[in-house]
Amino acid sequence: MLRQLLQILALILFSIAVVMLMPYVQQGIQALLTAHGWISSQLTQVFSGGSTGDLIRQLVAMLAMPIAIGLVPVIIYCLVKRAWFPYFMQVVWVVWLVEVTALVIQFKAVA
Known about the structure:
By secondary structure, this protein is an all-alpha fold. It is about 80% helix and about 0% strand. It is globular.
């Protein structure tokens, strides 16, 4: 019971923080999408223009940013503690979910 109450309290506090910091959150998500677009455009030079090449380009572009962002705390943690960062995949998953959500929201189907 106490654990559920703490989780609800944490959810409320994080929601308040997001509402208060909305302009900064929007800037962060926009920077993530801009970096994704830049990586995708750079990979256009590497992969062919066919459907398979386009699929691989989109896959690599979608995975590059979460892994790159996840490596930042890993490097800092490794330099300080001299051990592997234990939550690397959790950070990658969170960044990936944010990126995919933003990409799906801004997606426009080609008619």
